[in-house]
Amino acid sequence: ILFLSLSLLLNPFQMIGQVFMVVDVPHHCDTSWIRAVGPNLTEEEQLNLTLPQDADGAYEQCSMYSPVDWDLDSIMAYGLNTTEKCSNGWVYPPGQPLSLLTEFDLVCDKKDLNDISQSIYMVGLLLGSMIFGPLSDRIGRRPIFLISVFLQALFSVATAFVPHFYVYMAFRCVVGASVSGVLITIPALATEWVGVSYRPKAVLITHCFLAIGQLILAGLGYGIRNWRLLEIAGSAPMFALFFYIWVIPESARWLVTKGRVEEAKKILQKAASTNKRTIPPELLEQLKPEKQTKSGSTLDLFRKKHLRKVTSIISCAWFADSLVYYGLSLNVTSFGLDIYLTQLAFGAVELPARICCIFLLQWFGRKKTQAVLLLLSGLLSQQWSLLLPSDQPIVTTVLAIIGKFTATASFSTSYVYSAELFPTVARQTGMGLCSMSARVAGILAPLIRLLGQYHRAIPMAIYGSVPVVGGLLCFLLPETRGADLMDGTGAASPQVSKKTENLSKKDSTKDGVELETDI
Questions:
Q1: In what helix (H) or strand (E) does residue 28 lie, and over which residues does it extend?
Q2: CA distance 115 to 330
Q3: Eight-state DSSP code of residue 281
Q4: Where in the cell is it found (predicted)?
Q5: CA nearest 186: which of 413, 416, 350, 351?
Q6: SS3 track for 223-271
């Protein structure tokens, strides 16, 4: 669990690190053409002669007076009246650290490329869900996890050396696909290696490292303002995880469902040896699959009525989770306070949110927790967007932080809940499908922000309405607290066994061995 968790420390950097690379700065058109006829002009005189001004007397950022072939005296006497878009680039404040915005001129007509590039990254997450989810059910959790870690390290570091913004977007798409592979294999490995009572803890401990990563992101963004150096600092440490090739085991449960019982026995014996335990041979002999099970497909999730309902509703929940989570995270620059302080608060609130999930899931069950958290995150977003005036940055930020708390807790709940709802033969396929749903929302989240140019409340009203609908739908799902994981697609729902805890205790005390009774 610790090794799986370490790979998530830098995940927030890949998700929302770009926010700190495209910080808005003052800019205006490059009008150095006038220097040819007026080399001794001061900067203020140059700007007065070549840039139009808005109603407030500030220089226009995206237009300039058209260059003419007049001498300086004629220009000063008659002035310039015809305007055009910036044709020679832009000028930024001197000493400004190199950022994506200043290096690739993501201003004016190219301003929307920032949000579009975030959507391209989410497209990568979607492609990763489509590719790595089914592959993980077919060739195993471990190889897909290792491949994803390698691709993330390679392409995220390569992103720091791109010569053009469109190449940057292409590399970010590949990084998104690899991040998706990591995100959907970790819950499966975590839940399949522990017993019933430890499943929420296993998944949510890994998610706590995501929260720590949010805090690291705030520190990196504040300390490193050059975007290329920031990209390297937030990506290169992934290369340190290559030793995972020798330490990350395959899922014993997955091996059993594939009929590879002998391999599963060897891994369990290695686990017992690591914990200074011994497994009696007669206990290992019980480790037999009931029947040879083939990998499930996406169609299998829609053939059976109970799986069709579960898949549809939990996919809607993931969509809602992702929309409100990224809607808040990507708007960190819009709350009116210092973005680094706001990000620090966002990261700090995620840690208790994920820890609280451990207790909420045990006390109230999966269904109620998922539904209520979605409802709260949606309602908080709506209240903020519809009721608060734009001149209340502190109140706005506080509500946004509370909304981030509930959205984070809801997202973590979805990971645990989904892993328990889908059968082993199609768990990664189901998780991949849910992840695809979340990535569609992730693609839309930056684009919905563009609607803010019509009214500031529109984006957050959308971000808030969808979770409310998703939360209501979650009341139709079955409860999985204390239930055994399904291995095949035959069972109508995860079965809660009254003997589960007693059997687990009995097996765990027999010669000091803990073996999952449902296997």
A1: strand 28-29
A2: 9
A3: H
A4: Membrane
A5: 416
A6: HCCCHHHHHHHHHHHHHHHHHHHHHCCCCHHHHHHCCCHHHHHHHHHHH
The amino acid present at 205, given as its one-letter code, is: I
Taking a C-beta distance cutoff of 8 angstroms, is the pair 436, 130 a contact? Answer: yes
Reduce the secondary structure of 460-501 to three states and give it as a string. Answer: HHHHHHHHHHHHHHHHHCCCCCCECCCCCCCCCCCCECCCHH
Which structure tokens are listed for 475? 């009341």
Quick one: pLDDT band at residue 156, thresholds 50, 70, 90?
very high
As to burial, measured by CB atoms within 10 angstroms (0-12 exposed, 13-18 middle, 19+ buried), residue 412 is buried
pTM score, two decimals?
0.74
pLDDT at 504: 38
Q: Which residues contact 180 (CB under 8 A, 6 or more apart)?
A: 124, 125, 126, 127, 128, 129, 132, 148, 435, 439
Task: Evaluate if residue 495 carries a pLDDT over 70.
Answer: no
Cα distance between residue 128 and residue 49, in whole Å: 53
DSSP code string of 33-97: GGGGT-TT--HHHHHHHH--B-TTSPBPSSEEEPP-S--HHHHHHH----EEE-SS-EE--TTPP
Residue closest to 61 by CA, chosen among 71, 69, 72, 52: 52
State the angle between helix axes of 305-329 and 457-473 in degrees (0 to 180), rounded to the nearest 10.
150
Over residues 67-82, mean pLDDT = 80
Copy the structure tokens of residue 349: 């609130």
Residue 469 CB neighbours (<10 A): 14
pLDDT score of 515: 34
| Dihedral sign from CA coordinates of 294, 296, 300, 306 | positive
* Average pLDDT over every residue of 444-473: 80
What confidence tens digit (pLDDT) does each residue in 243-292 have? Answer: 888 888 888 888 888 878 888 888 888 888 888 888 888 888 877 765 55
Kindly tell me if the per-residue pLDDT of 157 is higher than 70: yes
CA distances from 398 to 353, 394, 403 (A): 15, 6, 9
Which run of H or of E encompasses 375? Answer: helix 366-387
Q: What is the pLDDT of residue 382?
A: 62
List domains and CATH numbers for the chain: 1-14+97-248 (1.20.1250.20), 28-91 (no CATH), 298-481 (1.20.1250.20)
Share of the chain above pLDDT 70, in %: 87
